[in-house]
Specification:
Blueprint (H helix, E strand, L loop, with lengths): L3 H18 L3 H19 L10 H9 L6 H12 L4 H13 L5 H17 L2 H18 L4 H13 L8 H10 L3 H7 L1 H21 L17 H26 L5 H18 L5 H34 L2 H10 L4 H16 L5 H7 L1 H10 L4 H12 L10 H9 L6 H24 L2 H4 L35 H18 L1
Length: 491
Amino acid sequence: MITRDLMAPLMFGGLIAFMLIGYPVAFSLAAVGLFFGFIGIESGIFQMNLLQALPERVFGILANDLLLSIPFFTFMGAVLERCGLAEDLLEGTGQLFGPVRGGLAYAVIFVGALLGAITGTVAASVIAMGLISLPVMMRYGYNIRLATGVIAASGTITQLIPPSLVLIVLADQLGRSVGDMYAGAIGPSIMQVLLFCLFVFVVSRLRPDAMPPLPASARTLQGWPLVRRVLRGMVPSLVLMFLVLGTIVMGVATPTEGGAMGAVGAIGLAALHRRLTWNLLWQGMNSTMRITAMVIFILIGSTVFGLVFRGMDGDLWIEQHLMSLPGGVTGFLIAVNLFIFVLAFFLDFFEIAFIVIPLLAPVAAKLGIDLIWFGVLLGANMQTSFMHPPFGFALFYLRGVAPKEVKSSDIYWGALPWVVLQLILVGILIFFPGLVTSFVSKPEVQDATKIEIQLEQPAAPAVPVESSPGNTGEEKDDQSAEIERMIRDQK
């Protein structure tokens, strides 16, 4: 007979087996949860009434206002992917950085960061830069592996830079404010860009032939024409960035409202670039519908699995193992990030966020870890899921738009140094949490010793007034009624 202590490990193993078979994750989660739930009911180790909370939890998912921001940001990214903004940014910054070694690589990194702060989706950044920058980099003698690596890595910065969908989901699962999560991600995003630029600088000095500057014949814009070309791409981007990020971080708008303004702004940019067509809107809505449906189904499946798993004391099983790790908080963070890194080879970031994070968050809170720091740290780790050979989605996107002469092996080998840089960022965040927490506003703490409590003195009871020639019968009745009311109040 299966004991209660074995149910949680068996559920975890069963879930891994389902996913290794290749069955869809959303249905795997629900199937494993219900299967072990019925076994537990028959064995008398799981209470049937716990499943009565399932419909209410599913309704809670569908009524969650925060999750409504996901289709808005997805639609915004889908429209911006096709509106021509990336072309203006890449052409202007490419001309600006062209005279220096590795100039095109610097341009790709900065444009990737800027697109990440606008679109919030990896596909939009990688596809746009792969179509525009990769042929130019190959034409002027860039090393294939370095060129493909910087394009794929710059696209994945999107997962860490607000308004990332990853940060929205993590904020929801950790029970924290999206605005605080966005503010906490500012420092790590800047550090990620600096690490990438430092790597390009070192490589351009050690191997100047791998990242040559643009020849003078290719630098067609100079002076004011170049400034106008750069501003043409930058100004609309900065305005849209303020509409989305500025309003959310300042607390003026909720994430849902910020996403709605971003979607309207994306349509406006498409109209400005004369790309606004019914076909563009249809493709954007179709992509948004598919991604939103996937997220909701995974979330419902993880809710079913999580309800049964906790009913089997699976959360206590996870907590017992994680709390006993050597090294305290640092050991816990290192072990968790290694676990997430390995899971990212096989699972999408949505799946990791909905399955694993709810199990890790209570343990992190008990260890006294700031959950904003914890969430941003895991977000930085999960961006490697887009770069892992051979399953990284960024590599697939780039393979789809790269010229035929680019080998898949070059794309995979080119991604490895950038994965190492992303892991270096994770290590920096573990040992220097101030990169996250210093950007998050702390609530004002009042000194309890200086708090004064002032109580209003109760009014003295009224004394009955004797009758006098000047008192009428009506005044006596009023005084009697007042005395009776005060007696009732005292009782």
